[in-house]
Specification:
The structure holds two protein chains of two kinds. Chain A is 83% helix and 1% strand. Chain A is mostly helical. In chain A, α1 crosses α6, α3 runs parallel beside α7 and α8 packs antiparallel against α9. Chain A is elongated. Chain B has one domain: P-loop containing nucleotide triphosphate hydrolases (Rossmann fold), CATH 3.40.50. Chain B is globular, with a radius of gyration of 17 Å. The chains are: A mainly alpha, B alpha/beta.
Chain lengths: 230, 216
Amino acid sequence: MTASTTPSLIGAARALLARDARLLWRRRGDALQPALFALLVVVLFALALGGEKIALAKVAAAVLWLAVLLAGLLSLDTLFRGDAEDGSLEQWMLAPVPLAWLVGVRTFIHWATTALPLLIAAPFLGELLYLPHRELGVLMTSLALGTPLLSLIGAVVAALTVGMRRSGILVALLALPLYVPVLVFGAGSVAASSQGLDPTGALLLLGAGLAVALVLAPLAAAAAIRIALS
Amino acid sequence: MTPNDRPAPPLLAARGLRFTRNDEPVFGPLDFNVDAGEALLVQGDNGAGKTTLLRVLAGLLRADGGEIDLDGQPAGHARRARAIAYLSHLPGLKADLSAMENLDFLCGLQGRRRAQLPENALSIVGLAGYEDALARQLSAGQKKRLSLARLWMSPAPLWLLDEPYANLDLEGIELVNRMVQAHLREGGAALVTTHGAYAAPPVRTRMLVLNKGGAA
């Protein structure tokens, strides 16, 4: 038939990235919400603990981890919902590139727009909580390994609930138990290093989890989307 | 397209195709062929399973029995993606993107005919001058036209059109018929569902009538 272009994996990913970057820019107020939310959680903790330096320093890493985790959770419900409701997901499923690839790209965008800004802000938020400076390195490493894992697990949950209406709380109820191991090893690695122990083991486990999730989560989420839309 | 010594396999062939939902048959078993240059008009009342049939053919739903062949080969995901363009009830447009941005994204995702320019496609469907209008500002009929522009850009030979006339004015209905005609002339084929209220395009047409709980 006539000459045509079939999109490559990279081409389709670029189209999706460009689309979401545009959408993000059109609704930049919304895009700021997760970061502001995390900032408020941190400030509330600081206020609740009375601004006491020693008490804050002790829980700083755990509070930062929770703030990042909750901020990611907040935007999880919108990961596929909009695209399901306006029919975009149908067109994704009909595209020549695998649905799992598009789901993976979309999940990367979720991470890059919610977790990455917080990762960059973490040293400043840490300062707010008197985080000991020697713990900052471990905290940043654990967040860098843990937050993509959170987004990937979250993507599977979001895909599972995409067929239901108003499932904001349900997404949280399903995702939070699955987040527990990530939180345990993530915040645990910082706690271990603060007690003079070696955090490498916990960090390696996070890395291993991330490697497994990178492969399996997009496939699982794509399968869930197929079921939800049928 | 092919030498005449052997007849080309039909673009789309369904054999014994059926679909059930909660043990209730929705349609089938159905047998039909659609050749290149031919339109299949799927008629039936509301709830007769027209949309379901198209979704099964597109691969969005899994059939409970039967086979679908595309160009004489069993339809898998890769073959479907290359051969089928689907116009759904849902337009698949992002409200916060302009008409042109929506079209660009869908072409980037699904491929496009190299000879077609998005600007041309928009003017063919009567959306010239609306390139930068946000999709949320378009009327339902204009959104339909934008979806038609996407179809026009698509390299797929087989169009699955689910109620393409819905929301369109008289001129829009004429536009759909002209597009189908042109597509068929280029060796494409189209499945068009309608509940029977509109005139069929003046092309070589087969009919498939669906009734509730099975085909006639």
